[in-house]
Amino acid sequence: MRAKNFYRATSLDDAYRKLSENPKNAIIAGGLWMKKLGQSYDTLIDLSDLGLNKIEESENSIKVGSMVTLRNFETSPLIKEICGGLASTAAGEIMGVNFRNLATIGGSVFGRYPFSDVITSLLALDVTLEFFPEQKMSLEEYLNYRGKIQGILVALYIKKDAGTYFYKKVKATALDFPLVNIAITLRNNKHYIVVGSRPMIASLAHQAMKEADAGEDASKVAKTAIGEYSFADSVAIGKDYRKEISEVYIRRGLKEVSK
Amino acid sequence: MEVRFVLNRTEVVLNVRPDEYLAETLRNQGVLSVHIGCNESNCGTCTVLINGKPSMSCSVLTAQVYGKTVTTVEDIQEEANKIADYFSDEGADQCGFCLVGFALVVHALALEYPNPTDEEIKNYLVGNLCRCSGYHAQMEAVKKYLAEVKKHAKK
């Protein structure tokens, strides 16, 4: 990665002003994926001084500042309480602690990475994103949004739903990207089925979710879900294998969350 | 650009490039214990402690540690020597290139988890790769070191 300048923003207004000055300016967050991409920037904008590294509880939701590290997110008792701890489990399987102490939850979500474990798990929960200037949208809306949001991700609001979950990151080695990842939750008597890294970005299988809610058999629901998704080949794994293992894990996951 | 942080208990003010990574800065400062392995956020060899937390110094810009504390193995020499001895006793230390990163992570593990399970140890160390040995010997070494830390804590 190359950058001509590094700027420590003093407020969200200040950060947004700087971001808008030049299309080659960017928010750095943790900066892990930026290093991998190796692109050139004019000014990197750092949000470290803006108090966005807090996890706070309100009546219905947990507010997670976008600069919270994956490690602090994973180990937070508040996050572990949401739906049996799905988001905590998924974040805890990403690389090692020395990586997760740097990577941020905001960077992980804003990038809409197709391989993201964070996004797959959060999509199976009720998550709203807050941007600056003021704009709120659900995580699903954000993932489906065409084009780039011209704003700064400030916080995530995760609803404090109780429930059960299933999570499977299929990977070749402990530090690998997921070959496919599956998150299923049962919250408030409703099922949520998410498959990511297909290798496209995670999405909900809405038709299959309706069938699961109607009490259809897990095998039928898994088949419906697979039909809703597109799969593709990548260097690591073929699309047919991705499809096969996804179906198996969805079936197992549905049984698991209903136990 | 000017960056100010605390390196091994001493405040330093350094002039660095805005896109300079911490591992490079530390090595330029003569802190040669910081080894750059893969330089791709993968192997953990370059691990240092930032505000006490294990972090890959190849993947964080020096500008990002402004105002923070950075600890390398030089600052925990006594503990590092003990950890190295346990690794050596178990045959877990061969070329030694990865050991500096391991020592810092094991040290942080001991502080964060007074009674870690095997699973917690594995989860904490998974981001540190060793290409000489298997991990069984390292696991044994870490467990013996942690037992010693616990014994001293009780006294």
Question: How many DSSP helices of chain B?
Answer: 5
Number of strands of chain B: 5
Through-space gap between termini of chain B: 48 Å
How are the strands ordered across the major sheet of chain B? 2-1-5-3-4
Query: What is the percent of helical residues of chain B?
Result: 25-40%
Strand order of the largest sheet of chain A: 4-5-8-6-7
Number of domains of chain B: 2
CATH architecture group name of the largest domain in chain B: Orthogonal Bundle
The coarse silhouette of chain B is globular
In CATH, what is the homologous superfamily of the largest domain in chain B? Answer: [2Fe-2S]-binding domain
* Tally of helical runs of chain A: 12
Biggest protein-protein interface? Answer: A-B, 27 and 30 residues
Q: And the CATH topology of the largest domain in chain B?
A: DNA polymerase, domain 1
Output the helix-strand order of chain B: EEHEEEHHHH
- Major sheet size, sense and barrel closure of chain B: 5 strands, mixed
Distance between the termini of chain A: 48 Å
Commentary on this structure:
The complex is a heterodimer of chains A (259) and B (155). Chain A is globular. Chain A has helices at residues 12-21, 32-37, 70-75, 77-81, 86-92, 97-100, 105-110, 117-123, 139-144, 206-213, 218-228, 239-258, and strands spanning 2-8, 26-27, 40-46, 55-57, 61-65, 127-132, 135-138, 152-159, 164-170, 180-187, 190-196, 203-204. Chain A is built from 12 helices and 12 strands. Chain A has 259 residues and is of the alpha+beta class. The longest helix of chain A is centred in the last third of the chain and has 20 residues, at 239-258. Chain B is of the alpha+beta class and 155 residues long. Chain B has 2 domains: 2-72, Roll (Ubiquitin-like (UB roll)); 75-153, [2Fe-2S]-binding domain (DNA polymerase, domain 1, Orthogonal Bundle), CATH 1.10.150.120. Helices cover 39% and strands 15% of the residues of chain B. In chain B, strands 2-1-5-3-4 form a 5-stranded mixed β-sheet, covered by helices on one side. In chain B, helix 2 crosses helix 3. The relative contact order of chain B is 0.15. Chain A binds chain B through residues 1-6, 8, 28, 30-32, 35-36, 44, 46, 48, 71, 92, 95-99, 101-102, 174-175, and chain B through 1, 18-19, 21, 40-42, 44, 47, 50, 53-56, 59-61, 63-64, 66, 101, 105, 108, 123-129.
